[in-house]
């Protein structure tokens, strides 16, 4: 993956939000024997996931390629939901992973792994307690209320790869939030909002969790991933409603995340029913419209 020119005078239009330095990030993160093979920073793009999937398809990106955008104008969440934020107000990046030795049936753990890695890094680096909402949201507490500060999107890239995208609101102010239920690390009282150390911390955490998961052949229990995810998952212990395609829904208490990464609901009928991320349209608290 060949870095493009990421220079742009407009990057300095908000001095509270300085640009990332792609060369410095490459020096810090790309090393012999490490996961990260390249780090590219671009001023703006539609979607880092879309771009990296295309680069992988054309053979122009190796495993460990990292693509970071200062601004996305067509960022996507799960089910193609739109993700927008002001330039340089957050971290918007995608990574290419090729876990060839792991059974494909276990690749569904990658977005959950990315959530654990990100939450772990933010706790250590910024002092922010980040909860995981199954299957792909990152939550922080602002004013006693849980609000979304980030999300994760995993997409297949050819037959042997997965692109994992992470979007994280870092310095958004209250008047910049796209919806009242959104938040940012700054609003949650983060001790660090400099995006450079935050990105380095998240990528290093992701590298370690990914290495442990691969070494365990993708077994989420053997590498501690399943236990750690459950410990940080705010969905567990709550009564929720899973809205399914076709207008159907399933309601119950979220009691576990199983070995396949599915959320297990205990229904009023006494049945424990697993639901996969690909099977639901929305997951809401029971009783919420």
Automatic annotation (TrEMBL):
Keywords of the record: Biotin, Ligase
Report the superkingdom from the record.
Answer: Bacteria
User: What does UniProt give as GO cellular component?
Assistant: cytoplasm
PROSITE patterns, alphabetically? BPL_LPL_CATALYTIC (PS51733)
Q: Indicate the transmembrane segments per the record.
A: none
**Record has Cell membrane as a keyword:** no
Q: Which residues form the BPL/LPL catalytic domain?
A: 29-214
Q: For this protein, what is the EC number?
A: 6.3.4.15
Q: Which GO terms describe its molecular function?
A: biotin--[biotin carboxyl-carrier protein] ligase activity
Q: Cite the Pfam families for this sequence.
A: BPL_C, BPL_LplA_LipB
Q: What class of enzyme is it?
A: ligase
> NCBIfam families from the entry?
birA_ligase
Q: What is this protein called?
A: biotin--[biotin carboxyl-carrier protein] ligase
């Amino acid at each position: 993956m060949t870095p493009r020119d990421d220079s742009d005078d407009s990057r300095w239009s908000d001095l509270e939000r300085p640009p990332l330095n792609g060369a410095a990030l490459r020096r810090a993160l790309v090393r012999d024997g490490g996961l990260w093979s390249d780090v590219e920073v671009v001023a703006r793009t539609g979607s880092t996931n879309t771009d990296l999937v295309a680069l992988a398809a054309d053979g122009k990106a190796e495993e460990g390629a990292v693509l970071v955008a200062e601004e996305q104008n067509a960022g996507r969440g799960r089910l193609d939901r739109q993700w927008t934020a002001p330039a340089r107000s957050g971290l918007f990046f995608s990574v290419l992973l090729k876990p060839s030795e792991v059974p494909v049936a276990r690749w569904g753990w990658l977005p959950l792994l990315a959530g654990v890695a990100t939450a772990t890094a933010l706790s250590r680096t910024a002092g922010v307690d980040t909860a995981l909402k199954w299957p792909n949201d990152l939550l922080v507490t602002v004013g006693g209320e849980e609000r979304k500060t980030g999300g994760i999107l995993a997409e297949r890239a050819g037959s042997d790869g997965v692109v994992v995208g992470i979007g994280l609101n870092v310095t958004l102010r209250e008047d910049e939030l796209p919806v009242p239920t959104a938040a940012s690390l700054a609003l949650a009282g983060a001790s660090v909002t400099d995006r450079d150390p935050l990105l380095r911390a998240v990528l290093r955490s992701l590298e370690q969790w990914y290495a442990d998961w691969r070494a365990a052949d993708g077994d989420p229990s053997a590498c501690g991933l399943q236990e750690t995810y459950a410990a940080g998952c705010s969905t567990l212990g709550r009564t929720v409603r899973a809205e399914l395609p076709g207008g159907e829904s399933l309601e119950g208490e979220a009691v576990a995340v199983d070995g396949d990464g599915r959320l297990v609901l205990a229904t009023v009928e006494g049945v424990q029913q697993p639901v996969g991320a690909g099977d639901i349209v929305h997951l809401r608290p029971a009783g919420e419209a």
